[in-house]
Amino acid sequence: MITLHQFQPAFGLPNASPFCMKLETWLRMAHLPYEAPLMTLSAMGKAPNGKMPYIVDGGKTVADSTFIVDYLKATYADPLDGWMNAEQRAVALAFQRLMEENLYWAVVYTRWFTPNGWEQTRTAFFASMPPPLRWLIPPLARRGMRKQMHGHGMGRHTEQDIYAIGQRDISALAEFLGGKRYFLGDLPCSLDATAYAFLANLLWVPIESPLKQHARQYPQLEAYCQRMRGQYYP
Known about the structure:
CATH architecture of the largest domain: Up-down Bundle
Strand order of the largest sheet: 2-1-3-4
Helix content: 55-70%
Largest sheet: 4 strands, mixed
CATH topology of the largest domain: Glutathione S-transferase Yfyf (Class Pi), Chain A, domain 2
Number of domains: 2
Structural class: mainly alpha
Shape: globular
CATH class of the largest domain: Mainly Alpha
Order of helices and strands: EHEHEEHHHHHHHH
Number of helices: 10
């Protein structure tokens, strides 16, 4: 049995980490049985690279959502992407990178560094911690996130520029999806696990921002998330 270690649900989503939600969605799409025990500080301390998610499968520990998916494909076959040609795989990789390496950091800004976003994020992520951790961990985590954003480069921009970057990403996703059922057509693929996780974490988290307002201009994004939730999280 695959054991999935991830953050606990928050904001009414299966996971407030799009990387964790991506992996759990992929497992459901691939019909692979798994268990997801409640996260403990001990489990977090055992996470390779100090990040979630990671899995333990038959005594083997694998970290990073993309490497985990690659491992699962190699171990249990590839039920989702076998029909794709080389061009479709290239497009899927490009959109995955757009969401995971660029749009993600714009969304992080809305959660961690706007006053309303930080208030809700601090409550959702840290309120269940016992004192004094509940008071000590949030500012340390926020400081670490600020360093990561600065190192990535997104944190070096103004708020206006960050929103403009994220809005362009959202428009690209919406225009490419168009009226299709899934991102690459009539059949689901691994890209849909990523897209659903990132779009739901933008549209359905109760934090208002120019990014969320921009995404709401594209009804196909909301319709897509509703389809994915109905199919894989009934």
